[in-house]
Amino acid sequence: MSDSRIAAASSLGVLATLRRGVQISPQIADGLWLTLALAVLAAAGRVVVPVAVQRTIDDGILAAGGPDAGRVALMTALAGGAVVLAGLCSAMVNVRLFRSAEAGLAALRVRAFRHVHDLSTLSQGTERRGALVSRVTSDVDTVSLFVQWGGIMLLVSSLQVLVATALMIVYSWQLTVVVWLCFVPLFLVLRRAQRHVNAAYTAVRAKIGALLGAISEAVVGAETVRAYGVARRTGRRIDAAIEDTRASQARAQVLVSSVFSGGVLVANLVLAVVVVVGTLLGVGGGLSAGQVVAFLFLVQLFTGPVQMATEILNELQNAVAGWRRVLAVVETPLDVVDPPHGVTSPRGPAAVSLRGLRYAYPDGPEVLHGVDLDLPPRTKVAVVGRTGSGKTTIAKLVARLMDPTSGQVLLDGVDLRDVRVGSLRERVVLVPQEGFLFDGTVADNVAYGLRDERDERDERCDAVGAEAGREQARARVAAAVDALGLTDWVADLPAGLDTPVGQRGEALSAGERQLVAIARAYLAAPDLLVLDEATSAVDPATEVRIARALDSLTSGRSTLTIAHRLSTAEASDLVVVVDDGRVVEVGPHAELAAAGGVYAGMHASWVAQTR
Ligand SMILES: Nc1ncnc2c1ncn2[C@@H]1O[C@H](COP(=O)(O)OP(=O)(O)OP(=O)(O)O)[C@@H](O)[C@H]1O
């Protein structure tokens, strides 16, 4: 079995991560060469201005034969043209980058989301679900920031610094050395400072996280807070969290403004140094007036990139970290793979056989130690056993939510791993103890039992067709409710089938949620139903409704029920007793109850307790 746990981050190096990232979202590199060419033009355009200024002064204003107005006009026009060209190129670079980055990252989001969805519930269980969601959303956002802006800015800025340096060397290598001697330490200091800024912002994010946690706990747990009269204590906790957040925000802001102002100050001081050293060199005859002024312009071309470079390198680090985390998700092998040439399992009464079934959860001990079992078609089978004996694990393997470590689950003689997943889901449906309800109406939630192919067909249809599809779906929901004997229950709901169930079905009682789950399974109409019997206590009227609905749901179907109540076992055709990962007894209830084995013991103590 593949390791189904999701790594915290991929272990690729920086360049390998970038390469893999672009491989997964090739749209990022679409038209990159043209974008690069435009970026080079933009950088070159900016460097034209200092040259034009130098020529204007030296060959125009200070021309040997007096000011040359024509030359000044020509150079001014040239500088103007270069600025416009550089501006246009920059704008085009931005638009192009934005487009390709968004297309690439949208593809990455889709891929990451699909993958998270396809990962077994098992893999998702090992990672906090919120953290997984963040990988598909905010981690992709950090990548997006860099791809849209950072990467190309880093390139353009480096180009700008290189071209400016080359030009400066042509004018005066001494002054160039002075400029570099000033800027290299500035860069190093800024880089260090940026680390402190990052640490400060990490602290801010942590404080905000704690604040949100405290507030949401107070909101979600409002009833408990009121019931225990601990509103003051909760309030104090929130106040403290707010104060913590304010203090850390203030610290971060002070740090940012000091770093920024410091950078600007040093950059301006460098200008002053250039003026002084340049003038001294000029007096010595090494530099013309135009060249000193051009130098001042060239130094300006350094300031932006050096200040930005620290930020961009930071962005690069974040992006690589984000990319690594997203890649780790995308590259986690699926543990339930849809076979490439899977067979379509024909509909009809379903027979299931388990052959030498063994299973161990990731990093855990083996919990099933070779289970052999034959479940004939159209039989109601109850699986009973102590808590932790492996009943749910068997159910999940039969529904192929995961694959066995060894052994086979056969559906009508075919290994589940050879059956198309779509076909399998049509034939086998697992109804968990607490079926998830989506925020919508009762009808919407029941309609989740209709297979995806219907939705796809609806999507392809025009609006009228889709409307007809919706009406048809609703009619089927109503028919299901009717067939399960739930019409009176629906009629009692505030808005009938259109009653909103709230988030996770909070607006319904536990029993009502079960009814919705049963109706949903009925609509799915599987050949084999795997039921994890709900354990939550419900009122007697709902209990009767649930029992009646379950009867209609299971009628004529093969059913494998994880029975938590022995009354369910009594009512089934076959009882399977699981103990410590092994099937220890199989047979009809009456036979086992009389046999004096494990089941007889369980049954006797249950009878003693309940009757
Ligand atoms: N996701 C999981 N990761 C690791 N171990 C698990 C996981 N789920 C179950 N187990 C372990 O596997 C064993 C069998 O669990 P299983 O849920 O199949 O038992 P069960 O008979 O259904 O119990 P219950 O009646 O309490 O639901 C237990 O020891 C349990 O701790």
Automatic annotation (TrEMBL):
The keyword Signal does not apply. It is found in: Cell membrane. Residues 352-605 form the ABC transporter domain. It comes from the Bacteria. It is a multi-pass membrane protein. Pfam families: ABC_membrane, ABC_tran. This is ABC transporter ATP-binding protein. It comes from Isoptericola hypogeus. The lineage of its organism: Bacteria, Bacillati, Actinomycetota, Actinomycetes, Micrococcales.
